[in-house]
Amino acid sequence: MKLLPKDVYRELADALGEENISQEPAVLDGYAWQPAMNLTNQKWIPRPAAVILPATTEEVQTIVRICNQRQVKFKAHSTGWAAWGGPSQEGELQIDLRRMNRILELDEKNKFAVVEPYVCCGQLQSEAMKKGLTCHIIGAGPNTSALASATSAWGYGGTGLSTGYSGRNVLGVEWVLPDGEVLQLGSPGSHAGWFSGDGPGPGLRGIMRGFSGTQGSLGVFTKCAVKLFPWYGPPQPRVEGILLDVETDVPETEKMFFVVAPSFKKYADISYEIGNAEIAYWFCRSPLNAGVDLFMPRAGDRLFESKPLRALLKAFQHLGVALLSSPSKREVEYQEKVLRKITVEHGCILLDLSKAPGYGFWWWLMGVRSIPTALTFRAGGDFLTSYGSPVEYDNAIRQAEVAQECKQKYIDQGYFKDDMSDIGWGGIYEGTANWGHCETAAMFDRRDGQAEGRFKYLEDSARTTIEHTLGLGLSNLPPGAWKVYGPQLHNYHLWEARIKKAFDPNSVGDEQWYVPSIDEIEPKESSSDEQ
Amino acid sequence: MNDLATLKSDMEGCSRCSHCKWVPMAQIKSWRFAKICPSVDRYNFHAYSGGGKLIASNSILEGRSEVTDPVMEIVYRCQLCGACQVSCQAYRDDIDLADVLLALRAKCVTEGYVLPEHLLMIESMKKEDNTLGLLKADRGVWAKDLDLIDINTQKVEVLFHAGCRYSYDEDLRSSVRNWVRLFRNAGVDLGAAGPEESCCGGRAFEMGYQGEMKNFAEDMIGRIKASGAKLLVTPCSDCYYTFKYLYPKNGMDAGLRVLHAVEYADLLIKQGRLKLGKCASLRVTYHDPCHLGRRGEIYKMGWNGVNKLHRPVRFKQMGNLGIFDPPRNVIRSIPGLDLVEMERIREYSWCCGAGGGVLEAFPDFADWTARDRIEEARAAGAEAIVTACPWCERVFKDAIAAGGDPMKVYDVIDLITMSWGG
């Protein structure tokens, strides 16, 4: 076990207080257990040398400066779910940002909130609702950090149709750079408030997070503003129960539907139409077989064994959940008429969920609070995700089709639970933008070993993504994926590596989930260019 | 009870999603009261959370780390309130988080990693049959002049078990006496063991001294059977949990129906045997004691499978079948009282801070936890916090007294007594 040098530990403890730093092995292992996205055969990821709990930007600066002076690598995380939030090698300092947990500002008029890293999406949404607003919640769920998904990761939420995805929601940012300097991006950089990410003030959003975020490899984000969107429901809805027992009152200005298309192509077509019509708050592909596995996994096991029942579920493969939300009953009636017209024109079926018992459950848990992802644990205990390139939407839907074939092979070999393979989830971004997201999860029990087979699936998903020109997806996230994708996509990894070197000259930010040092990868590229 | 090693699959199932730190996501109503685990909320390192303790347990089991003084603080600075399990099991079918926490403590005790404050309590239990270090001979003083039937010499239908805290805490004496008067008023003949009543043993079990509970349980069950009682009524939520959950989980059957006093009062009101009067106008909120609420859920027997992924949901201890409505029903049946709800209620209630041996070993942490709850009661607009557990009442009263807070604290029976003009 590699610990921090004693004098470094002392310096950090003096700066933040003994109660906010630990190198107790059992405490450190709390940061070395990260099953999600741990794509190795090792149960544990590397154990950090110490963990530290800053409460202010100044304390983060102090930590980062000490790391630079003493050549200690660091990794910061917010709510801390998945391996990308932990260290990639022993000897690193884990910065746990959970004491930075405030909502600093909630600007009703300009529709944004300024948050610290440990504010989870559920907290932000509940406060925003009191002011007639709501926020984007990524698919990972309301337990995750609003700041982390906006600044450092990439994720689609079911409301993508009306809210866009995580990287589109970030406005002003406060960023402790890897050398310890503080940079305020966008309007806060010119002391003009937090309303804009691109100015007046430095607009470095492309460098800060680029396309998919740097997963905490390029400094520490200590504050950020995120967009808020209109919420037409009550400030604090009556909700009873905690999950499958949830009961609530759905406002009459909200309506929810299942839209069932006969084919992948028709599903893409109707999605474009819904986007272009500028209706709906949420429209997201959610095959019925996926729902069965999430909500009744043991029944699913039996259903999937029966050919006639599989056929029945297959009929609802191309199912999307639509939530219409508006400030008036008349407006929601208009949206419903448009949805019905589009559905008929495309030979699809529309099922009105508001007639179904337990409708409030679907409305609150899925449509508003975005909870279902955590239910993915129920089927196998763990899951991974793949594909999911943000591209024109028919290409996104094509990903579900390709994924279905690719994943089935691994289901057949016992690496994944049988979920009828296609559980491609996602939707159109931002109405008329016509681009969107469709990622494919795969459920398994990590406790049975077999990690190689699952990693091979991810490699296969990356390969088929390239073969079918499906874009850069979630399959590019595992460390080293740049080797596959970089040459295909303008050698983006070289640009990233140069940015990393410029911002992190001492290479103290853990780069495992971003890109290796330029010194490590450029010579190889040069020699290949010469050939 | 499970040995830690038998729960390895539960530990390895943790995905580190951290739902165990939050109120179940469907129920987050504000920034301020979104947290559910006092332990991690106070001490911050992940190891203090429910999931963190799963990971620490696994780490210790694999020999990656050892129990040290700092690890003991993690293990024992936890009220075992069970909220983490509720939030975890909202999504997980294959992890029994509370079992791991109990097994971890048992391992610590077996290997000698014990706290002196807990040892004192255990010694008191062994010598004086109570958790409070007081004389056994004084146990029955609370019932002086109540003329309860002595179950040591006579048969009874209904046995009243006061529990340690109510037997000895003089501040709470009127409450326990009023429970007896109430049931008498409804025509119920109650019996009690007087000075022969002993601790249920639940506290010993929770602190990791699992074997000790067996001795108390055998004594208790023997006395119950000898009394001929068909119904046991207790006003103590800790005892209730021990009788309803711990005894059956550990294969011990008292062979009679067990009701908490508020459940029994609710039943008697519904049967028309109890009539409540009017109270002075008061806005109150009800605090769900962990041991009566989520942990008061009856032990779900009958599933003996190996892979918990295949366990039917009805066998999960999700906490939602605890005792939540009877106390609320009683409060609502008293004209003049305005019951308002806090944000964290029922199975996702915030703990009072007293449980799991925290009050004895870390009173500052118990106080910190209680203050958070009092703040929540104030945010709900309540003038008084009402509960149904003497341990909750004790820690709330102490926190309020120390802080000079105007919030009042009542047991449900105090409100009933007030409705009678008492």
Write up this protein:
The complex is a heterodimer of chains A (531) and B (422). Chain A has 531 residues and is an alpha+beta fold. Chain A has 4 domains: 91 residues, Uridine Diphospho-n-acetylenolpyruvylglucosamine Reductase, domain 2 (2-Layer Sandwich), CATH 3.30.43; 128 residues, Uridine Diphospho-n-acetylenolpyruvylglucosamine Reductase, domain 3 (2-Layer Sandwich), CATH 3.30.465.10; 220 residues, Vanillyl-alcohol Oxidase, Chain A, domain 3 (3-Layer(aba) Sandwich), CATH 3.40.462.10; 49 residues, no CATH class. Chain A is built from 19 helices and 22 strands. Chain A has a 5-stranded antiparallel beta sheet. Chain A has a 4-stranded mixed beta sheet with strand order 1-2-4-3, covered by helices on one side. Chain A has a 4-stranded antiparallel beta sheet with strand order 15-16-14-17, with helices on both faces. The longest helix of chain A is centred in the C-terminal third of the chain and has 20 residues. Chain A is globular, with a radius of gyration of 23 Å. The C terminus of chain A is likely disordered. In chain B, helix 13 packs across helix 14. Among the domains of chain B are: 114 residues, no CATH class; 153 residues, Rossmann fold (3-Layer(aba) Sandwich). Chain B contains 18 helices and 9 strands. By secondary structure, chain B is of the alpha/beta class. In chain B, strands 1-3-2-4-5 form a 5-stranded parallel beta sheet. A 4-stranded parallel beta sheet of chain B has the order 7-6-8-9, sandwiched between helices. In chain B, 59% of the residues are buried. Chains A and B meet through helix 2, helix 4 and helix 14 of A and helix 3 and helix 4 of B.
